[in-house]
Amino acid sequence: MSLQSWFSGLAPFRVSSYKSPQVSLTPSLHFSRLSSPWTKDKMALVPYDAEGLGIQKFYKPLTTYKFVNHTIQIKQDWKQLGVAAVVWDAAIVLCTYLEMGALNLQGCSAVELGAGTGLVGIVAALLGAHVTITDRKIALDFLKSNVQANLPQDIQPKAVVKELTWGQNLGNFSSGKFDLILGADIIYLEETFADLLQTLEHLCSDHSVILLSCRIRYERDQNFLKMLGNHFTVHEVHYDLEKDVHVYKAHRRNHKEDL
Ligand SMILES: C[S@@+](CC[C@H](N)C(=O)[O-])C[C@H]1O[C@@H](n2cnc3c(N)ncnc32)[C@H](O)[C@@H]1O
């Protein structure tokens, strides 16, 4: 795929007429409530700023965050690298959730999928995790530079940046090695759903926890969550109303649960 089509075809913009479902902070998914009367003609791609939300923030070459008592400065390059080189709200919400301390990351083995700028992986490392921060090959140099720039020397060895294109060369990642699998705004391309699911299946052991943060933009995003629910037990554990971002926690389905 050319850089141009990689950039233009994959932006997870939101549909103009889609209103986010009002999901309460219930501990489990209620798909029936979420099936909205969407139709295909409502699927025109419209950038966020059409809704007054603004994508100006993507044009900033540098964005600054404060997590785990560290100032994190992330370089962005929307024009050259598109979706993988800007910080999405889902990443900020997932970092906030991690910082809230629902999980103890100290010493845990984590992997981040579709890391983009690496903000989530950086915060996971600052919270004590050993983290493998992954994305597609084309995004890796930019990702590495953000990770290196934001981790103190003593924490650098805890973070490794590595290529992981979903569904490909999964043998490079030992099955079941990770306690925690992280993904922010990675549910948006229908053609990748099967590969993403296969990747989660491969990486997960019986004790692994998956945390996925996302904004539900399209009916297809719900479909992915349904697919996920066929293989994993899925609960919504956090919802950021202002950013309209959900955090889902999943773990491998225990056979006893099916009885
Ligand atoms: C919307 S961006 C989210 C980036 C980052 N997680 C964040 O929230 O700021 C989606 C990310 O998924 C990555 N991605 C898309 N398709 C992929 C695939 N098939 N395999 C691996 N990563 C992929 C993109 O390169 C991009 O970094």
UniProtKB/TrEMBL annotation:
Compartments it resides in: Cytoplasm
UniProt record similarity statement: Belongs to the methyltransferase superfamily. METTL21 family.
A single GO BP: methylation
Primary role: Protein-lysine methyltransferase that selectively trimethylates residues in heat shock protein 70 (HSP70) family members. Contributes to the in vivo trimethylation of Lys residues in HSPA1 and HSPA8. In vitro methylates 'Lys-561' in HSPA1, 'Lys-564' in HSPA2, 'Lys-585' in HSPA5, 'Lys-563' in HSPA6 and 'Lys-561' in HSPA8.
UniProt catalytic activity: L-lysyl-[protein] + 3 S-adenosyl-L-methionine = N(6),N(6),N(6)-trimethyl-L-lysyl-[protein] + 3 S-adenosyl-L-homocysteine + 3 H(+)
Xref: InterPro entries: Methyltransf_16, SAM-dependent_MTases_sf
Organism: Sarcophilus harrisii (Tasmanian devil)
Any one Gene Ontology molecular-function term assigned to this protein's record: ATPase binding
GO cellular component: cytosol; protein-containing complex
The entry's keywords: Cytoplasm, Methyltransferase, S-adenosyl-L-methionine, Transferase
CDD domains hit by this protein: AdoMet_MTases
A Pfam family this chain is assigned to: Methyltransf_16
Name of the molecule in the record: Protein N-lysine methyltransferase METTL21A
